[in-house]
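Below is how a single chain appears once it has passed through the pipeline. First comes the sequence as given, then the structure the pipeline wrote out for it. We keep one example in the README because the format questions we get most often are answered faster by looking than by reading.
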Amino acid sequence: MAPNRRRNRSYILVTASLLVIVVAAIVTAGCTAGTSTPGAAAGLTGVSWSLESYLDGNGTLVPVLPGTEVSARFGDDSRVTGSAGCNHYGGDYRQNGTALSVSSLAQTLKFCEEPKGIMEQEARFMEILGSAAGWRIENGRLLLTDAAGAAVLAFVKEAPRTLAGTSWTLASLAGEDGAMAPVLTGTTVTAAFGTDGRLGGSAGCNHYGADYTRSGANLTIGPAVRTEMYCTNPPGIMEQEDRYLALLANVTSYRVEGGLLVLAGREGTDLLAFERAAQKPDLPLTGTDWVLDGYSTGGDAVSSLVNGTTITAKFAPDGNVTGNAGCNHYGGSYRLDGANLSVSSLYSTLMYCGEPGVMEQEGRYLGLLANVSSYRVEGDRLTLLDGSGVGLLFFVQAEEVPPAPLTGTNWVLDGYSAGKDAVSSVIAGTTVTATFSPDGNVTGNAGCNSYRAAYRLDGTSLSVSPPVSTRMYCGEPEGIMEQENRYLTLLESVAGYRIDGNRLDLLDEAGKTLLSYRAENTGRP
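Resulting structure:
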């Protein structure tokens, strides 16, 4: 194989009309002209065949390499498709009785390094397939033969593979004219078949979910529900999403050919073709930063978040859950028993956000969180469910945010301890800040007055000396001076700190949060 074929080849679907490479156009002399004879093709068409052995260069039938999957499916439309081991392929075939010819073979252009010899095997398979002259069924096996009737390719029937626990990425979908077309560049459409009979993934813009049932190769997918975002880029993404979900509802069967999953409709028409997605290990519930992707609004309806808001959750190993509910920070306790999960003693800061829908969304989120009875993690997705197993809250793993440094960052106070387990947000219209300088001083504004104090740092231990401040009096907003006094008192009580992404918590000797900040100009976490 030429060296320039090894890398940087764009992936092209067999079914896509982007590029066709003619591999062979061979009409075997033994085949007579004319259309296929359906009756004589019984046993050849409509079956997914898996290659068992092929004729090597020495004229010996040898088994396929371990770890490779080579397949063929002869459709009623005179098309043959399948996996050649690394690449997918397609072509035309003509059949008359037991005579067979294959022509106009085309394949994708990936290069696979493992297992050793896979590309050589693929090239040999494509060569033999293009020169096949006949076929026959023996003991349930499909044998493709040469002009002399000798077997050159031996296939066995592929058993329907289970879908539960598999994840796929859409490669192409049927258009209004029935022709398969590749997904839009810059879009990713996924399908994850859960072990609980639920199908979910991304439809390109919105996330969706549906029930599915499988019996043998028969597959039924129930009505899908999706979040309610609207995307404008790339152009056509929403039309593609609508088309995808409509095709899902028309699926009646499936087949797996190598690394390709094909969902078909009535009369066996191909509707959707997926490639196997790289398996992601299930993330742990605890210790993972989760960001909300959607939430139940009752029945089967799922809503996406209000634009510009972010809702997060982190389940700590100590049995506490904390996060941001969209406006306020919240916390609570949780109990875990296998897949059973309950959340209790929820509290939050007391800020008010005026953007339309933010406070209603926050109330809905906290109410759903309190009603959680179990959880499920699939890869990098977390679903919290109620007692009937209905999904309430749908999270994805949050993008990792590099921790902001303690020193040199301008920290803005979000909330502070009001005693016992109570947490108060800062009074609307006030800003409290802290900047830890490398010279061992912390400075900032306490809401009304500026302040300064010395600090000592030893690992994650932090102590702050009694602050000194200016002596202004601010009469508004109400409570500002009491808040300032509380803040400076708490600052003097600090014994340690913790940074998580763009958030800083100053802690007391017991590890409880006294003061909670965010790094300035990073947005709401």
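The radius of gyration is 31 Å.

See the next section for the split statistics.
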